[in-house]
Structure formats: structure tokens, C-alpha cells
Amino acid sequence: MNIIRLEPDEGGTVAWPTLSTSRKSVVTVGVFDGVHRGHQAVIGRTVELARAQDCFAVVIMFDPRPAFVHTYAKTHAGIAVPEGLHDAQALTGADERLRMMDELGVDYVLIVHYDLAFAAKSYRFFLGQLVGKLGMRTLVLGADARMGANREGDIAHIDRLAQATGMFELDVVDDNGGMTRVPATYSPTAPQHAGEPVDPLAAMNKAQRRAWSKRTNAREVRELSSTNIRWLLSQGRIGDANRILGHMHGVEGTVVHGEERGRTIGFPTANVEEPIDGYLPVDGVYAGWLIDLGGDEAYEQSQRPFGDEQDGGVESISQPYTSGGVESRLAAHSPYRWPAAISIGTKPTFNEQTGRDERVLEAYAITDGWLELYGHRVRVEFARFLRPQIKFDSAQELVDELTRNADETLTIVGE
């Protein structure tokens, strides 16, 4: 797989590369946040058609997320997102998305820096560029895809354009996931009881569901959608989110020194530094996994940062993708993967003593050996919600509960 990063000019025009003068492309377009089962179906279809037609399988991926860009502009007098501002609502970082696309067999990922000028281009102009520059033969999209200025380019409009011009074909993938309802606005809400929470709508009749939808101003979305996954994670429904993702939800970041209080009570934890790549579920204690991705500097170098000069001092447009061996560390039986009891929250048992209320992510790896992970990049994966954050009356009560959480974690990940 090859990576090309593209920056629109001031007018929003992208200098699309010529991938080949003789070989066409099958293209799909989107953010692919989470690379959930719906995304996997679309990318898989893109690869399937490309192989059948002897074309390149091309993914055009937007980064940052369009929703992040437009929301920021709406709340900041129409200005662009400042460089380096962290998107805490993104389900996955770019590194994770690229790893999964490589596994799915994509030939090229074109990462377009999404900005307001680019967003103002019409879908007709955008698709014309893809045909003319990338040699797009087939465009593969999900059934709810929209693109272009004011999101006017829905499936119906794109299909009419394809048939009228005859320049490309449109292939629409139905994920067969159905629809669901999600509140228009909501706040992360931790379950009040131990154990994985259930769908609150499951026990409601039609009248009760209508009342809930009206009360929460709920809107209909596809079940297999990043919006739905974000909602589920914000309510602690890890199992439901993972089912839609088709893999365990995870976040990634660098381990730093914390208060080291866990070490004094026999539960040393890996404290992950902000900003964290990936969406943090609601506060609580979770069963899951801790994976060591290697030293932070070595990890960054292994990802082949864009802009590195190649032979002769010339910057390469297309760079071969490499994960630096991260896949082997993520593998199911990797020696760098450990069951972990994971805590997200403000440490209610000790925050009165410390005066610190910041939200932190900690993972206690259940292993006999001592782990020295300071300065390492790690991935924390969530398997199930265990319990809400609780303030204990003593350190011993906390130790007893953490012991139970560790035992529960081993049972859950063993399943």
C-alpha cells in the first residue's frame, strides 16, 4: 500500500496525482472513522472490483474529520481549525485507520487535508477531478454517502451524473445494518450499576420509544455508523459498540509518569498521556487489553512521517506504507499484549487528598512480570464495562475491589 498526502490550495483545489497513464482506478471516499463493519464492506468491495478489473484500489480519506472542521467553524466565527488542535470526538487516529486499510488490501490511500475551501467545491467538480486525474473507472460508496458543497452530492445525484456523463460507474454498497435512533445532543453518562449496560430501548413499547425520541430529540442514523458507535461508547455500551465495529474499540497514546499511587498498593498502572488518539468511553472501569507498540520515538520513526526527504533531497509524493512491525505486536498471541483492567476517570478515592480532578486513562496489566513502559506508545482496547467509578472509604477497600476487577477481566478476555 502507498500513501499520498494532499493539501488543497487556498481556493480548495487539490493537485491530484497521476497514478498511472494506463491503469484505471476503483475509488472510495470518506473519513472511515472507526473503520467499522460498514466501512469494511465498502473498502472490501473497492478492492474486489479493482482486482476483477485490473485497477488500483484507491481510498480517499479525509483528515481531519469534516464534522470537526465544520463544527469548529460554526462556533468560531467561520475560521479554520488551528493546526495541531486535537479532535477528541474522533473514534480512531490516522495510524489505526491506515493499518486496517493495509490489511484490507488497498493499493493507495490519498489523505486529503479537509478544510473549508475544499468543502466549498461542488461534488461535480470533485468527481470530475477524480476521473481526469486518478483515472476513476468506478466509484464505490455506502448507501448514505454525501459529498461536495452543502453535502448536495447524495447517491441519487451522483448516480444521475454517472449515467449522464458515462465517465464512471457508481457501485453502492448496502451494509444491511438497519437503522437506529441517537439523541441529537447528549452528554457521556456512566452506567449506575456494575456490568455491561443494556439497550434502554429494548424493554420499551412503541409509545415509550416515541416519547424517548421526542424527549431526547433523537434522529435516525444507520446502525453501522460512527455516530452510533460514539453514542454507545459515551453510555458505556462497549459490547454493542464492538459488535458494530467488528473489532475491539481502542485508543493509543504515550505512557507517562503519574502519581504512582497504584504501585504503592500493588496495582501499578500505565498512565496514558493526553492527547489520546481515539475516543475515550465514558468514565468507569473496563476489562480489556494493554498492548505495547514500542518506544514512542521508535514508533514515530517507523510510521515514515510525511515530508521526509528521499534520495537526492527530493520529497517523495507517494510513500510505501509501513507499520514498523506494529501488526505483530497487536496479534492475538503477541508477547506484547496483556489482559488489563482499565480505569477512566478522576480517581474519586484520592482526589480530595491530591486536589487533582483531571480525567485520566490508566491500564493495569495483569501479568506476573514487571513492565517498564514509560515513554512507550501503547494501545488500550476495551472488551466490556465492569463498573462505574466509586469512592472507597479506604485504600484497602480499593485494593479488594481492584483484585475483583482483575479476576473479572481474566474471565472476560478468556472468553
TrEMBL record:
BP-aspect Gene Ontology terms = FAD biosynthetic process; FMN biosynthetic process; riboflavin biosynthetic process
The record, for SUPFAM superfamilies, names: Nucleotidylyl transferase, Riboflavin kinase-like
Q: Which GO terms describe its molecular function?
A: ATP binding; FMN adenylyltransferase activity; riboflavin kinase activity
Indicate yes or no for the key word ATP-binding.
Answer: yes
The source's domain of life comes to Bacteria
Where do the Riboflavin kinase domain residues begin and end?
Answer: 244-414
* One Pfam family hit: Flavokinase
Keywords attached to this entry: ATP-binding, FAD, Flavoprotein, FMN, Nucleotide-binding, Nucleotidyltransferase, Transferase
Associated pathway: Cofactor biosynthesis; FAD biosynthesis; FAD from FMN: step 1/1
Q: Which reaction does it catalyse?
A: FMN + ATP + H(+) = FAD + diphosphate; riboflavin + ATP = FMN + ADP + H(+)
Look up keyword Flavoprotein and say if it applies.
yes
State the family it belongs to. Answer: Belongs to the RibF family.
Know the name of this protein?
Answer: FAD synthase
Q: Which organism is it from?
A: Bifidobacterium criceti
Q: What is the lineage of its organism?
A: Bacteria, Bacillati, Actinomycetota, Actinomycetes, Bifidobacteriales
